[in-house]
C-alpha cells in the first residue's frame, strides 16, 4: 500500500492592527487655549487609538518663550500630555526646533516594543543656519520596523515653489543615522511626512478659487495645486502618497473666524497643511501563495480632514487617521523589568532588567517610571 503524504496549509502570520492619529497645525504663535477633543478625536466612540503623532509649526519662539520652555515644558506639550495621560498614553519622544514641535505618544502596552533611534533638527532658513524653516525628525523602531516621522515648515509665497521642493530634498538628504545597523531613510518601512508645506494654487484667480470653495468643487482646484503638480514630475516625490483633498483649503483665515483673508493682501486660499506617507516597496509574492509574507506591513488611510472649529490661528489643523497592519518582527519586549522585592515606602526600591540581543544600547538609555492611571 502506498503511503500518502500529509499536506498542511502553511500557517498565516499573526497580524496586528495599530490605529495612528496624525495632527499637523500651524498655530501662528497662539497660546493653547482650546479644547482638544475634536482635534484628537476623543469623542469618537468606535475609535480606539494606539499612537498619536502631533506636529505643530510657528509656536511662539521669542527669546523669553524659548528660555522659559528650556527650563519648563512648553505650554502646548503640557496640554497634550495632560489630556492624553488620562487615556493611558505616554509621551515616547519629542523634538523641538524654534517654532517646530514634534510629539509622539503611545499606549502603555506598546512601550516595550518601541525603540527611539534618533531625534534630529534640520534648519533650512537663512542658508541652513536658522530654524524658522526646516524639519524635525523622530526615527523609531516599532515592533521591529523602522518608522521615520518628519514635521516640516517650508518657505511661503506663491513664487517660492522651487525653493520649497529644494528644502524638501534637503530635509530628506539630511536624514543620516549613526550606526551601521540603521538603514538609509528610503529603506525605512514607513515615512510619515507632514506640516505646513506652503504649496499654493497656481493660475486661478482669487474669485474663481473662492467660488469653487463655496460650491465645494475642490477637484477643480486640485489640478493647479503645486504639490500635486510636483508629484507628477518628480519620481521620488511621486512615491509619497496622500489622501484626497475633500476639505476646504486650510490657509489663510482671519483669526477667530472661518472667513478667508479679508485684509488688504487678500491672500488666495491654499492647501498648505498636508500629511504624506511613503511605504518601503514590498517584495511581490506569487499569486499562488495565499499567506502573508513574514514582513507584512501595510498602511490604510481611514480619515483625512480639516477641523474648522479651531480659529486661534490663520491656519486650520489637519488630521489623518491610519490603520497600520503588521506582522510583528518581535514578540518579546526589548527590556524586561524584574522588581527585586515588594516595593514599600520604608525600603529601597530595587529593580533589575534584562535586554534582548536586538536591543541597541546607548549611554543615553534611561529607565522611566510611569503612574498607572486606573
From TrEMBL:
Entry's Gene Ontology molecular function annotations: inositol bisphosphate phosphatase activity; phosphatidylinositol-3,4,5-trisphosphate 5-phosphatase activity; phosphatidylinositol-4,5-bisphosphate 5-phosphatase activity
Pfam families from the UniProt entry: Exo_endo_phos2, SKICH
Transmembrane residue ranges: none
GO cellular component: endoplasmic reticulum; plasma membrane; ruffle
SMART domains in the record: IPPc
Gene3D superfamilies associated with the record: 2.60.40.2840, Endonuclease/exonuclease/phosphatase
Coiled coil: none
Biological process (GO), any one: negative regulation of insulin receptor signaling pathway
Location of the Inositol polyphosphate-related phosphatase domain: 16-330
Alphabetized InterPro entries for the sequence: Endo/exonu/phosph_ase_sf, IP5, IPPc, SKICH
Family per record: Belongs to the inositol 1,4,5-trisphosphate 5-phosphatase type II family.
Protein name: Inositol polyphosphate 5-phosphatase K isoform X2
Organism name: Cricetulus griseus
Species classification: Eukaryota, Metazoa, Chordata, Craniata, Vertebrata
